[in-house]
Amino acid sequence: MMKNKKLIIVLIILLSIIMIALSILFVDLLQSDFKFKGFRIGLQTSNDLILDKTYEEEFNNIVIDTATSKIFIKKSNTEKIKLVIYGEKENTKVENNLDSLNIEINGKNCLGFCFKQKLAKIELSLPEKYTGNINIKNEYGDISIDKFLNANIDVQEDNGDVKILGGNIIKVNNNYGDIEINNANISNINAECGDVYITKTNDATIKNSYGDIKLESINNYFYLENACGDIKLNSINLNKDSYIKSDYGDIEIGNTNELFIDAKTELGDVKIKNNYNKADITLKIENECGDIEVNN
Known about the structure:
two-stranded parallel ribbon; 1 helix; 60% strand
């Protein structure tokens, strides 16, 4: 009987410790910039300045490879390139050679759950007429890029939102997070889980697994695939045959030029206001489950 009482007391103490630990964790997460992927928890942004440098060189290639970073690429007030980094110096490496600026930030190694790690912060300022390539690979953290209509932008993101105000050819691969593009000549998007929103583009190739796809204006061609989520196109003007494939979700299209719209859904309704059977351009729409509505 005494042994049972001792066992109960030990269990009560252990449970109390667990509850206290969980309470501390919950408060910590509420106060932090929370991003959860794998076992990294409670990521906060660093305020420790480790680099503030202005470059005289003109770089045709900007390469950023980071583990846990918030990345801001913005217009410079001058024709020079400026780089500011907050984080840990021992995990940061910056090199410039020939026409390339390379930024590498490694994360801390950890086993199991990782607490109180900090996101590095990168602030890169480029001339507005920058015509080179911007290549970013980031595991954790949001990415924000200003309008550089002459630049080619390639983003590989694992966990975080991506916002790009403008570029020439924009490619984004994102596993977890929303993607927003304001203006692009060509948009090539692969998303696993998150919404995709594009204001204006000429060509668009978008594949999404879970999330909505919304495009305000398309002026040439598109190829859209969505496994689960709605698709909404406000205004399209096609010069090439285009295609939409959806497994689960509604498809809604607004203004169009004269198109032959070949649409079918396995489960749902199809409503097309104006369909031009003799048009030179065909828009093919296939939906497994969901309505198709074209209000042109």
